[in-house]
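Q: Joint fold for the lines below.
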Amino acid sequence: MSAALATVAAGALFGFGLALSGMARPEVVLSFLQWRDFGLMLVMGGALALTLAVYQLVPRWQRAPLLAAGWESHTARMHRDTFVGAALFGVGWGLSGVCPGPAIAGLGTGNLEMLWVIGGLLAGAWLQGVQASAALAAPACLGKAER
Amino acid sequence: MFAQLFPLGWGHYLAGGVLIGAGVALLYVATGRLAGMSSVFTSSWSFLSSQAAFRQPRWLASRVWRLQLALGLVIGAALWWLTLGPAEPLSTQVPAWRLALGGLVAGYGARLAGGCTSGHGICGLGSLKLPSLLAVLVFMATGFLTAQALAAIGVAP
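A: Joint structure:
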């Protein structure tokens, strides 16, 4: 229960920050991608500086999180899919001016047009999952397992 | 110089970024979890689909807290709207076809890449992962190209 509350509270800080920074507005994101306003560098920089410090330092001070047994670690892979996927992600981001966090947070600002993005994201994740399921069913020698 | 880089000011950008970081940090310190936001679009399919990729333990085990985190995002943004935001709901001039098609391509891409602006950009870089750094450079490049190509052919905003 308290983990659930902490998770919602963490999301609320995240969502308030997305809305305050303007990232929940596609126009602001597009003005960054079109090099008319570089504010999103400050958003990313501010978020990353704090995250980097906490991710790197807190596990050295504490054996475990406050409400869980262990620290999860990032699963980024040096794999073609990471870069093909990132390239496509950027195309979709540039087309809409919206990425997954702001699409969700945008709903809280009353912007129901974000449902178009959420529908698209769900459809895209579905396509990727169906494709990955076919790969999971294929012989393991194809090296496509995991995911 | 500063006014050219940040025509709308810079304080709200930095403050918003720090708050995003505070949320990511709270989730980690409390639960040890990483706050990548594209995963919820995969994990939530496990409620409805029997496709093998959605039935993996990592999605079954995380699908509830990922929805809790998403709920938090909506609540936090609503708190901003109620306290600091405009009286009327926010809206966008970007047409529905760009929102939907962009979402589709970004959703497929982020899930193939294993992360998005938050998953690779904040959590991956915060974890000092080289593949995340490369992914960020790639999606920034294609994001710049796409948005500027649209502007160049007169598609606005």
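Q: Anything notable?
A: Residues 57-83 of chain B form the longest helix (27 residues). Residues 92-157 of chain B form one domain.
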